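In the laboratory, one determines a bound structure by crystallizing the protein with its ligand and collecting diffraction data. In a computational setting the workflow is compressed into a single prediction: the sequence and the ligand go in, and a structural description comes out. We illustrate the idea with zinc ion.
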Amino acid sequence: MTTAPARPLCSRGPLISAEGLNGVGKTYLTNRAVDALTTKPVMLDEFSERANGRPGLGEALLHALREASIGDPFLRGGTPMAEALLLMAIKRHDLDTVVPDLARGQAVVEGRSVDTTAVCQALLLHPGDPDAALKTAVDLLALAASYRPLPDLTILVTDDAPKALVRAQWRDRCVFTDEQAQFMREACELFERLAATDPVRYRVVDRRHVDEFEAADLIREWIQGAGGDLACLVEPWQGPEAACMCCGRPTLEAAA
Ligand SMILES: [Zn+2]
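The predicted complex, in structure-token form:
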């Protein structure tokens, strides 16, 4: 691991993501956790539907992916790398919309971030090869980090894949094909393995071991505890000499 250059502490709010398989209950549990908070974070809904419902570029890109994948629940259109880059562009768009919130010290919680893209697209690039998929997922995260800063904290909600499948089918009133169910099982495993590669950024709620009350409590504690000692946010394509995306100060201690 390389040592990052020292960066001054920033007055910005933390960027937190909630990740996990369809039907794992991440939105439900995150909303319950936030309900119990007195200071509410800004909530950024899954893939780009702005909190105020205003369609924007992110929604337009998502619409293109939906059209190209002809109703596939995982937006698979047959060109995984092109789709990965579009999904990363959507997540960049989402970040752009909340930079003013972060800058005034607000916590932001995004439902699904770049980890979902890394997991799903890595599986598509390496069907039947979980180890190669893990390596590519890590590489895709590095690519995503050149588009936009990664979240300060990522909360992964996980469970037995068959249980998540039942919830997802009930919620979406659909029946997944065997192939789609298999894809979910593989994604479940890869999410967990990817989270284990970065214990600093990830917190994992495993519903096989905690009930929904404990799960919501954990998520509330983590959201509450994020922030306070955050470094300035570097625009990745500009490098460390650039001004912080939030407070505008130089992001290298030496340059301050
Ligand atoms: Zn800053």
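Residues 15-255 form a domain with the Rossmann fold fold (CATH 3.40.50.300). Keep in mind that any predicted model is a hypothesis to be tested, not a measurement.
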